[in-house]
Amino acid sequence: MSQQPTTPTSELKNDRYLRALSKQPVDATPVWMMRQAGRYLPEYKATRAQAGDFMSLCRNAELACEVTMQPLRRFDLDAAILFSDILTIPDAMGLGLYFEAGEGPKFSNPIQSQADVDKIGIPDPEGELQYVMNAVRTIRKELKGEVPLIGFSGSPWTLATYMIEGGSSKAFTKIKKMAFAQPAVLHKLMEKLADSVTSYLNAQIAAGAQSVMIFDTWGGVLSPRDYNEFSLQYMARIVDGLTRHNDGRKVPVTLFTKNGGMWLEDIAATGCDAVGLDWTINIDEARRRIGDKVALQGNMDPSMLYASPQRIEQEVADILASYGQGSGHVFNLGHGIHLDVPPENAGVFIDAVHRLSRPYHR
Ligand code: CP3
Hints:
Layout lengths: L15 H6 L20 H10 L2 H6 L1 H14 L5 E2 L6 H8 L1 E4 L3 E4 L6 H6 L10 H14 L5 E6 L1 H10 L7 H9 L1 H25 L3 E6 L7 H18 L3 E2 L2 E2 L2 E5 L6 H5 L5 E3 L6 H8 L4 E6 L8 H15 L5 E5 L9 H15 L5
Parallel strand pairs: 1-4, 4-5, 5-8, 8-9, 9-10, 10-11
Antiparallel strand pairs: 2-3, 6-7
Helix pairs in contact: 2-4, 4-7, 8-10, 9-10, 10-11, 14-15
Bound molecules: coproporphyrinogen III.
């Protein structure tokens, strides 16, 4: 064979993260951090400056790979996450993503009407989004089977909030106006987004992602009924359409709804492998409510990383005790690491998870 195969998943040197997601025994609780590549690392800022701006960094497979690897060189992390963004899909749909300094993401052509929704197509993952798949392939090669690679997407609801609000929002009045005054138009958009996310994640899996996560950052701003109608229903549809086995191994799917603690049972019932938790729920309660149905990921308050090493270790110990004995827990922050956290504190956190969790796996 002339083509060099990528290392099969079964040959992973550290598969704690994948094992925990399948509730198989592990020697220690695996840990990674949401937004582990980013501005709290000086080396990230240097590589971003080299790329010019954030989207140019995402579009350059070598540099996206470099920033994915940076946190792994510093810390004993159990997984890598693709360096990209959830807003690549709306950008590929022609909405014109740009970042204004200090203001977060913006779209030059937000969705305002049925005509705008009708115009939108399903992006080709190996076409407009090929730069993402190239990054996945490059990162997999560079990881050399050390730890698994996580692929990701935004949920249809969360993507739609940015597409309709035109950027970040506090009250979400534009998308809620569409949800309640023109529900058929919003559902049409959601269907297109669900199809787009499904083919995008399946392409990431085909390119080498060994697990995928869906970020529903804004599902928690909905009422329980509306959450089901506008967010969960579409995530469930995506879970149904995903490639669940690849390269001789299960490809676990994690769903994370920030502020979704009220709906854990419903999220677990989608058929996902794991539910991501923010810090507004105790993990023992989550485990009790979900039972052994799925694994749990979380859930330290990211602001705890501002505290002293002793306080961080205490918090890790408390969360481990709260989860209790056995596998099925992937330690993480309840949301992304803050950009002004001292990197040493992230190291304290990660080492504490490994050191303090061993007694729970005997
Ligand atoms: O290391 C990783 O976790 C992988 C990379 C990653 C980024 N964004 C890089 C990024 C991931 C997984 C995301 C997901 C993402 N992007 C979400 C869901 C998770 C969450 O935080 O709730 C959302 C809502 C977005 C949308 C987005 N992208 C926002 C709101 C911003 C601005 C945030 C800010 O802090 O300014 C971005 C830009 C972005 N995405 C940055 C990074 C590292 C900062 C860009 C920079 O200035 O370098």
